[in-house]
Amino acid sequence: MQDFFDFEPTHAEALRRLDAVHPGEYARTRNALDGAVTGLSPYFTHGVIGMRSAVARVMQKHRLGYEDKLMFEFAWREFFHHVWTRCGEQVLSDMRPGAVWPGVYASDVPADLRAGRTGVPVIDTAVRQLYATGYLHNHARMWLASYAVHLRKVHWRAGADWMIGHLLDGDVPSNHLSWQWVAGTFSSKPYLFNADNVAKYAPRGGDKGWRGQGTVIDQDYEALERIARKEGDVGPEPGLHEGVSEPALWAAPHADWVTEATQPLRASAVPRQREIELITPWAMGEREGGAGAGAGGPWRLGVIHTPSHALLPWSEARWRWVLRRMGQVTDAVFVGDLTSSVPWKTGAPTWPGPGRVTAVRAPMPGYDAALGALATLQNPPRLLPNPEAMCRSFSVFYESVKRQSRSLQTQLNGELF
Fold first, then answer.
1. What is the pTM of this model?
2. Residue ranges of the alpha helices (H) in 231-311?
């Protein structure tokens, strides 16, 4: 059986995982760390497969409707991206005023937490898994965020920036708004957890790493609420705890990683008469005629706008994953500042007019402004409608979606959003 954490960056692997999805089993077990979750998030994040086509494929084998738990999870992603389309980079700041704690939250993640040596086994195990695999179950993400914000008094933005750098599936709307939901700046109350909650969802077989007994989280919710609202940083557990080294985060991929996986751009390669499609790390779907340079359709140029990644750098593992996929679906790749250092501004063939160059809007600060000077921007395809009015909660968003179509099937049969 293939390792769940072996996220091969291919369309074929996305389809393999998709074909293994069983909505009923997902609904019964999704909350457990070893439950039947899909493992599709890296593929959705990077546009390897679209959510609309994914749902249509699942419905070829299974009944699926708005009330299914699998659809709820898909809809949460759509909700976060709805907020991004309405608020943009505002999601990098508090969406609602009023911090839970009256003190000043730390602007850096403490060294013991970054090294997975807090002495709280569930937290240290989560950090190790994040670094080793680039993936965490949703419960583990929430536990890690809650511990960081409410017990260690780390500002949610510092924690979100740290986590997204190591996740294979991290995108700003889903990651940063999830941290805000935990922090209470995008929800009605802070999210708290305790050792009993961990034990309830820990993997079967008694993995000692996923536990919290005898630590600061081994308290009732009233005590944890008091810490969250009234007390300072609880610090690591007493004693010495073995840690791990945090992988470095890179504002740009190393040149060797680029040449190993892609065809770097030569100015003379830019076609004069052919339509051009700019491919960002969030739009790496299959091209017309299949994957591989030279396939049909527009000439595809992969673009990595490095100023954006200076703000939110990635691990080597994330960069290599993205570059491997980008190399499969583009004719060439450009890495650099799209606003100043592009080769076609220094003696290369004239860049075509915007009508012949397209790009899909990217959920990353700075990308759309840079892309918009070179291409006509298109909205990414959606599974669900995107309400005109900003929905400030998931429930409001989902009710609005359901009012606009009688069923999920009619939604799939309707226009693309």
1. 0.94
2. 255-261, 306-311
